[in-house]
Amino acid sequence: MSETTPLTQPTARKAYDGQDLEASKGFHDARHVGAIEDHQSGGDYVKAIVFGGLDGILTSFAIVAGSAGGNLAPSVVLVLGFSNVFADALSMGVGEFLSSKAHNEWVLSERKREQWELEHYPEGEIQEMIDIYIERGMNQEDAKMVINKMAKYPEFFVDIMMAEELQLQVPEDSHKCDSMKEGLVMFLSFAIFGSLPLLGYVIIPLCFSDLPEEALFVSACVVTGLVLFIMGCVKSMFSATHWFISGTETLTLGGACATVAYVIGQYVEQQTGEKA
Question: Where are its TM segments located (predicted)?
Answer without folding.
Answer: 184-204, 216-234
